[in-house]
Give the backbone structure.
Amino acid sequence: MSSWKSDRRIWDISQTLRPGLPVWPGDTAFAFEQSWRMDEGSPVNVGRMTMSTHSGSHGDAPLHYSLTGLDAASMELDPYIGECLVIDARGVSGAIDVADLPHLESVDRVLFRTYDAFPHDEWRSDFTPIAAETIAWLALQGVKLVGTDAPSVDPQESKIMAAHKAVLEHDMRILEGLVLDDVEEGRYELIALPLKIAGGDAGLCRAILRELDNG
């Protein structure tokens, strides 16, 4: 049996699921408890969780914003694995517009960093959304996945969900709630597989970036 280890650096860009995790106002709070405990005589520890499908870092399924969209179990995996471009959008005022983007060349996946420091301990409603026109423009450049450290690509108070609808129109995919504090702008390998949940409108991810293999 051969052993293999990559020397490429890995960045964990996932939130830690825990009690007190900030969630969308009115959504299900994250809770964890041990149902079987070794210190109470069980041979093993076993826990159980209650949570929203949009807890922490997650991939929206089309079912989240379309009655006829694919659920989390039916989504293809290709958009969630491969080379991506991280864009530093911390200086953007309002929604991320096409004019805020750098020159794009041969990129399938784009992740936006909008926070100086990710708000792990509080919900912030003033997050930076992405303009629907930007989503459409990215699709024309061949981008098939858009990710953000914000909790949504649309503003919190949006009722028309224009950015989500642009994603739907162009059959793209979305990652939300990423943690990009330690990631510099540039190209990486993305691996962020949403959980395979039948009927799920989103799938939680353990999302990572890996240094590209320049060899």
